């Protein structure tokens, strides 16, 4: 089943980027991108602007607040499909999301956005 996605994020309604606590816990190198996404939780859905992407997760700037700061979610990036994921941290202006799928699966699905060496260690 193909999921419909119509982003409502614009440059004027995206909050400025804050890297959370500043610690980089990613196993894989991150790549800056400018794409719209959606975060689905048990409480609903919020739009977000993707700040960077890796084979293991994303850092996003939400257009709204999550009721639950951490926990299971589904993350949808454009028309590339949704991943089961987990909200790992929430900073002042950004959220860290870890994908539930193996990094190789993520790299294959997002091959239009991630370079071939995306599975190299950070």
Q: Helical content, roughly? A: under 10%
**Helix count, per DSSP?**
1
If classified by CATH, what would the architecture of the domain at 27-109 be? Beta Barrel
Radius of gyration: 13 Å
Cα separation of the termini: 34 Å
Major beta sheet summary: 6 strands, antiparallel, barrel
Q: What is the H/E order?
A: EEEEEEH
Provide the spatial order of strands within the biggest beta sheet: 1-2-3-6-5-4
In round numbers, the mean pLDDT is 79
Residue share in β-strands: 35-45%
Look up the CATH topology of the domain at 27-109. Thrombin, subunit H
**Helical/strand content category:** mainly beta
CATH class of the domain at 27-109 reads Mainly Beta
């Amino acid at each position: 089943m193909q999921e419909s996605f119509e982003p409502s994020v614009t440059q004027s309604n995206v909050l400025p980027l804050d890297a959370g606590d500043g610690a980089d816990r990613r196993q894989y190198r991150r790549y800056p991108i400018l794409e719209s996404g959606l975060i689905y939780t048990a409480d609903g859905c919020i739009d977000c602007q993707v700040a960077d992407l890796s084979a293991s997760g994303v850092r996003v700037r939400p257009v709204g607040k999550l009721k639950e700061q951490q926990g299971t979610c589904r993350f949808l990036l454009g028309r590339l499909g949704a991943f089961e994921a987990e909200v790992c941290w929430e900073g002042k202006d950004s959220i860290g999301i870890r994908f539930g799928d193996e990094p190789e699966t993520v790299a294959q699905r997002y091959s239009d956005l991630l370079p071939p060496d995306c599975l190299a260690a950070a």
